[in-house]
Write a sequence for this structure.
């Protein structure tokens, strides 16, 4: 069972892709949602990182999820989810889970007029469609982080141990290969 | 263009489950962001004050909008008058994230809406029934909101509009395929959009509620009726404790199915906006732009 953080943003889109891949999922809004569930992986979806970060702290979910992440449960963060997992955010004093050793820049491609779609190479998968919506990118990574994809010289996907992050939204395309990669390489170890 | 339209629909998808708040200054914008708004709507006067002031209501001063853009990191939206494509060009020029072609402002054109396919920047438009929603989408809107009755603090119109839109969607779904041509004619919408709704049981874009939401319970009501997020205009900064009320409404939209949480956050919010009944107002903004 994959838990999807459902406080705000595009969580249904992740559910739909996982359903296509035959994986079960459930939505997480409050700490009771985690009780009596066996959770094999966690997805932090896109949305507004300020909103989700704030609701995480108010709902009491933050500590519980932090615990799971530190215990090395597989985690996949897209866009705002990447920001929540980053160790440092260049243009924001907040740090949320601080779980992957990357420095992130929020809204790095600008406002909505800077949003774009492209095809890019993703390590081990090949060319995948990538949708960037007011997206962040990764400025630099620590020694234990593997870079999985770059677009225009900017790092847009990376992994470290139990954590996978993308600055773009694979859940907004018909291509389910990155979700399949997460299920296969992270959740079934 | 198609690529752009997809990206613009995608931004609305990322706003789902969130609250978009009307703000009139950088200070209010920061309060809204701090309270958990997923976007702010920059305008000079909130709808309740537009009603009070009367006269012609126009797009806000670009300088004021830029001040709000500089103050927050979340998306910034702003309103243009219905049909006023030059106001829209101005907002696109200052790199706005979303344009609301809004009945809250005085319409600039009594017949034609803006041809929104000509813009790169996304548009949200109001609708009070399925026909209006699909006509706005065929003109290029990448997000829809109910019109409700802005500036009243009275949720009755928003409830009526979301119920009607969803009833009409269910009606379309129940038709045989060969009946859709006539349904499209009756709704005064393009056939392919009627077909989309018939096949998918929903609008092809995200649909928020707006117009009269004043309490966390109002917001949760709209979500349970099928809205994917909520706009709150006058309801926050016309109330006794805006920051607290804003936080509570954000919580209510996330936890709309959880009465225990909504009960807890509804406590002690101070004075709600006073509100006016639909019957007491002379100007029905929802009747603008069909």
């Amino acid at each position: 069972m994959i838990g999807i953080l459902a406080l705000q943003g595009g969580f249904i889109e992740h559910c739909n892709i996982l359903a296509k891949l035959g994986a079960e999922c459930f939505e997480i809004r409050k700490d009771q949602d985690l009780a009596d569930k066996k959770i094999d992986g966690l997805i932090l979806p896109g949305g507004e990182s300020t909103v989700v970060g704030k609701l995480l702290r108010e709902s009491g979910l933050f500590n519980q999820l932090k615990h799971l992440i530190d215990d090395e449960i597989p985690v996949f963060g897209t866009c705002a989810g990447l920001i929540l997992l980053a160790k440092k955010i260049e243009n924001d004093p907040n740090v949320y889970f601080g779980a992957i050793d990357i420095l992130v820049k929020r809204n790095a491609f600008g406002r909505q007029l800077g949003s774009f779609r492209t095809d890019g190479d993703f390590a081990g998968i090949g060319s995948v469609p990538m949708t960037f919506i007011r997206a962040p990118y990764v400025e630099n990574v620590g020694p234990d982080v593997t870079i999985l994809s770059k677009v225009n010289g900017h790092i847009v996907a990376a992994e470290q141990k139990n954590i996978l992050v993308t600055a773009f939204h694979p859940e907004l395309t018909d291509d389910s290969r990155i979700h399949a990669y997460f299920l296969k390489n992270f959740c079934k170890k | 263009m198609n690529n752009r339209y997809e990206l613009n629909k995608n931004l609305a998808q990322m706003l789902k489950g969130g609250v978009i708040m009307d703000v009139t200054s950088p200070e209010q914008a920061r309060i809204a962001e701090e309270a958990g708004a997923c976007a702010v709507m920059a305008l000079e006067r909130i709808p309740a004050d537009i009603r009070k002031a009367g006269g012609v209501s126009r797009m806000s001063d670009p300088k004021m909008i830029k001040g709000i853009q500089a103050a927050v990191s979340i998306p910034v939206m702003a309103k243009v008058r219905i049909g006023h494509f030059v106001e829209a060009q101005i907002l696109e020029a200052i790199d706005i994230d979303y344009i609301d072609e809004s009945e809250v402002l005085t319409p600039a054109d009594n017949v034609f809406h803006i041809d929104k396919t000509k813009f790169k920047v996304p548009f949200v438009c109001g609708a009070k029934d399925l026909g209006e929603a699909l006509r706005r989408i065929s003109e290029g809107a990448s997000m829809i909101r109910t019109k409700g009755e802005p500036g009243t603090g009275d949720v009755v119109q928003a409830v009526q509009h979301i119920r009607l839109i969803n009833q009409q969607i269910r009606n379309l779904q129940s038709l045989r395929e060969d009946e859709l041509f006539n349904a499209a004619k009756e709704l005064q919408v393009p056939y392919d959009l009627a077909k989309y709704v018939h096949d998918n049981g929903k609008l092809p874009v995200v649909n928020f509620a707006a117009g009269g939401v004043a309490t966390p319970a109002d917001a949760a009501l709209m979500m349970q009726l099928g809205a994917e997020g909520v706009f709150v205009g006058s309801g926050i900064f016309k109330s006794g404790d805006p920051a607290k009320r804003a936080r509570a409404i954000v919580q209510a939209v996330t936890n709309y199915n959880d009465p225990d949480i909504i009960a807890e956050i509804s406590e002690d919010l101070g004075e709600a906006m006073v509100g006016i009944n639909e019957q007491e107002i002379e100007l029905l903004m929802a009747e603008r732009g069909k």
In short: The longest strand of chain A covers residues 116-122. The first helix of chain A runs from residue 11 to 20. Helices of chain A lie at 11-20, 49-59, 61-70, 80-85, 177-187. Chain A has a mean pLDDT of 96.
